[in-house]
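Re-run with default settings, no changes from the original entry. Doing this only to confirm the output is reproducible before filing.
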Amino acid sequence: MPELPPDEARLLRLVRAHDRWRGRSVFNLLPSENAVSPKARSFLASDLAGRYTLPVVTKFHGETIDNSYAGTKYTDEIEALGNAACARLFKAQHATVRPLSGHIAAMSALVPLLPKGSKILAISPDQGGYDGYAPGYLPALFGWEVRPLPADGPGFSVEPETAAAEIRRERPNAVVLGQSFFLFPYPMAPIAEAAHSIGALVFYDASHVLGLIAGGEFQDPLREGADILYGSTHKSFPGPQGGILATDRTDLFDQIDPALVWRVFDNAHWNRIAGVAQTVLELERVGPEYARTVVQNSQALGRALTERKIPLVAEAQGFTRSHQLLLDRSELMRRHGIAPGALARRWEKQRLVGDLAGRLGTAEVTRLGLTPDDMPRLADFLVRAGVQKERVAAEVLAWRRKFPALRFA
């Protein structure tokens, strides 16, 4: 075999090293990531990776066409299958797997429905909200005014009376629910009632909890009053990076769907769409057990860490009802003299990958096959590696090698 040029050889080494490191040698506790099934991954490397389809009925040089490209009969069927499966999974009338990410899914929903000058209420980043909804980001880009929706309950939870009162006081065009620090479900009934009473739309950004919702855990936003559900497909939802959007409202979907092409994106990456569609089909089979186990693992890990003097927020509320746990930063500093970021760097050296912002996630370790019975051992490693500064990498690797195949795939 001929020798590769230096940069090609280096790139190959880096990719293979990453696959060994992140794919087979660590326990990943990042709440923003998950393991993709072998079948879904295989679709990412298929011939679809370099193909287009653009099924837009339009006139081109005087001729009416139904697609700008030929050779798309399988591509279009793959997308249609993915959209139909997504609608089934979320019990929605309409769905699309076209958005390229959770952020693009947000744009896909918000931009066609909120003209310039609209006011939105969204949870601010200092209460666990997503930075993309902060004043300097999406609102600045599209000319919206954004005001904070309070999330000042335990673990950045939303109090129903406070939220409803703020909605009626601010009278926004839209309420955007969703957080990066996402531990507890929203009180949807009072929020939706307050929003709809003033003609506002309710958008539910489920990027972090989409896989739990798909499995029937956490909550059911579309049945509980949300007008649009959207989110990322690579956090608790265990697919390749991308986005999903679903709704029961035909009037809204008829404004969203035609506005996607040439406004939010052009090529929607049909290899990714095939991988997302495969993940949707997998969750139709295993979603309930997967989602239930994720939540059980989160709560069991929360108990185990607390027993080992690692402080978490919302202990009195059971820590979480999602895939996330959140370290209590001030108490961690008081007890152990270390911030979450420094703790995560210690963990990383011992093959435990955590969040520098203080979050721990159980979605990927659940996919590996860990159960609530394994959480005390995982907590022991986190304490030994992080607080006690022990070298446990060899022990962690030996344990990691006992989980070579994905569960729930």
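The chain has two domains: 6-36+286-400, 41-280. The chain is about 45% helix and 10% strand.
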